[in-house]
Design brief:
4 helices; single chain
Length: 90
Amino acid sequence: MEEAAQRKEAKYGELVSTVRKAGYHANLITLEVGSRALPHMPEFYKLELELGLSRKSTRALMIESAKEALIGSFKIWCSRNKTDQVQNTS
């Protein structure tokens, strides 16, 4: 997950710099959630520090993000045979 965070920081870092140069305040906080709904905790705690979110709000966001990741992974898993069938008929 740390590698994913670094990729996102590299990808969006220039955008944040551009926004700041335009006179706006901008922070980059990446949120990584694994395919089994395990969140990368340090990034979620940055929300509390940098955005001033409450622990309750951070926890709710973590739960919602984990739920979305789990649902997405499940949909991919369920469609694995459909992909195989399409490739076999080509």
